[in-house]
């Protein structure tokens, strides 16, 4: 295989050439500080505000509801901590799910040490939480509901509009981590009743180190970093102008024709899933078969270790993942796979392929052939598999 096949786009994406082109002037000649009043500063300020409008348009928000951050994780931290602390006199209860990204889970766990009560709702076998369960968990002391838009590991889409309606009816603020969903599914924060939303550029062909937090007008947002008047006094520090410009251009491109993109990625995804399940025994799809991100396919293979599968795929020129990029160095089984009922050994044998528009049908078929061969090879070395076959003759 001469050219590598990259199918780990849920971890990060390649910067779009048009995005890089938009960024380049602000890495060189146009280097002014947006806080400065002279010409170079005003030019940088204009670029930042243009990007703010691009982000707002992409999610149905207003420009003054967008705050730039350094990452999606920062946006999650800011949203959850700010709401919890600013509403502490009203209540101390937060509702989330057991399958959130660690940027949400660890933030909630740290708030528990400050005296907050957190309900971690279970999910069904597909990784979905129901709006009814969210509604049943609401108390008089509930100040925030935070449920991810789409799961980063298994691709399952949450019923965001229904949860938003529940939150609005109860008068509780609703935050969603939409890091994986931007550019993949249509998002309108107003019609979906989303009060706060986190996103990051490098998941949709923007630069790393660029993110944003949407905060509905009227929601109190505490300062996250103090020391300057940037981001309307709520996040100090000279703006990352090239990164912000890149984020704005990337989100504009990513949301330009979502139905066309989704149709193509769904075709690749479904071809991969059907061929793997057809050709490899003792394999099972993780996540909802239909209510999932168009490019995400996560499959568990019994009797193998995912790490070995990844290493052999890498040797064949294929880049994939065993789960969340933020925990790929951990030997612990995925908390998401455990939450949907997978056994430890099944969770350890998972493979996530996240496809992009640059991937082809030929890529899919090459991955299927490689995975089939490697899984068979790994199982041939597994005493557990040998015992299983003997016991199930």
Instruction: Identify the overall geometry.
Output: globular
Strand content: 5-15%
| Count of all domains | 2
Radius of gyration: 22 Å
Q: CATH superfamily membership of the largest domain, which one?
A: Type I PLP-dependent aspartate aminotransferase-like (Major domain)
Helix-strand topology string = EHHEHEHEHEHEEEHHHEEHEHHEHH
Tell me the helix content.
40-55%
Report the average pLDDT across residues: 95
Structure description:
It is built from 14 helices and 12 strands. It is an alpha/beta fold and 393 residues long. It folds into 2 domains: 144 residues, Aspartate Aminotransferase, domain 1 (Alpha-Beta Complex), CATH 3.90.1150.10; 238 residues, 3-Layer(aba) Sandwich (Aspartate Aminotransferase, domain 2). Helix 4 links the parallel strand 3 and strand 4. Helix 3 packs parallel to helix 4, helix 5 runs parallel beside helix 6 and helix 9 runs parallel beside helix 13. The protein starts with a strand and ends with a helix. The model has no long low-confidence stretch (mean pLDDT 95).
Topology at a glance:
Blueprint: E1 5-6, H1 17-27, H2 39-59, E2 66-69, H3 72-86, E3 93-97, H4 102-112, E4 117-121, H5 131-137, E5 142-146, H6 160-170, E6 173-177, E7 196-200, E8 211-215, H7 230-233, H8 241-254, H9 258-279, E9 283-286, E10 296-301, H10 306-315, E11 318-319, H11 335-339, H12 344-348, E12 350-354, H13 361-380, H14 383-391
Helix pairs in contact: 1-8, 2-8, 3-4, 5-6, 9-13, 10-13
């Amino acid at each position: 295989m001469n050219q590598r096949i990259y199918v780990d786009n849920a971890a990060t994406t390649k910067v779009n050439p048009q995005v890089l082109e938009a960024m380049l002037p602000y890495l060189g000649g146009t280097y002014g500080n947006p806080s400065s009043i002279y010409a170079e500063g005003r030019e940088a300020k204009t670029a930042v505000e243009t990007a703010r409008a691009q982000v707002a348009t992409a999610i149905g928000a207003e420009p003054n509801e967008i705050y730039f951050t350094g990452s999606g994780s920062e946006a999650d931290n800011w949203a959850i901590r700010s709401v919890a602390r600013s509403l502490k006199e009203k209540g101390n209860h937060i509702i989330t799910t057991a399958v959130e990204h660690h940027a949400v889970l660890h933030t909630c766990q740290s708030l528990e040490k400050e005296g907050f009560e957190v309900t971690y709702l279970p999910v069904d076998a597909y990784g979905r939480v129901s709006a009814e369960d969210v509604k049943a968990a609401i108390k008089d002391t509930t100040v925030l509901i935070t449920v991810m838009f789409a799961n980063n590991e298994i691709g399952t889409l949450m019923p965001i509009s229904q949860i938003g309606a529940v939150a609005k009816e109860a008068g509780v603020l609703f935050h969603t981590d939409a890091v994986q969903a931007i550019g993949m599914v249509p998002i309108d924060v107003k019609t979906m009743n989303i009060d706060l939303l986190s996103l990051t550029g490098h998941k949709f062909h923007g630069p790393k180190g660029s993110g944003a937090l949407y905060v509905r007008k009227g929601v109190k947002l505490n300062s996250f970093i103090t020391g300057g008047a940037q981001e309307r006094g709520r996040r100090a520090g000279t703006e990352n102008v090239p990164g912000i410009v890149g984020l704005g251009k990337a989100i504009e491109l990513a949301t330009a024709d979502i139905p066309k993109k989704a149709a193509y990625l769904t075709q690749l995804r479904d071809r991969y899933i059907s061929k793997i399940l057809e050709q490899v025994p003792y394999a099972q799809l993780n996540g909802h078969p239909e209510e999932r991100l168009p490019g995400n396919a996560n499959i568990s293979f019994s009797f193998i270790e995912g790490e070995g599968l990844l290493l052999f795929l890498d040797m064949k020129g294929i880049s994939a993942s065993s789960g969340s990029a933020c925990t790929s160095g951990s030997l612990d089984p995925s908390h998401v796979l455990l939450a949907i009922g997978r056994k430890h050994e099944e969770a350890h044998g998972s493979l996530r392929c996240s496809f992009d528009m640059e991937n082809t049908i030929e890529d899919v078929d090459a991955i299927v052939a490689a995975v089939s061969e490697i899984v068979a090879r790994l199982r041939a070395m597994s005493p557990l598999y040998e015992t299983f076959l003997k016991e199930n003759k």
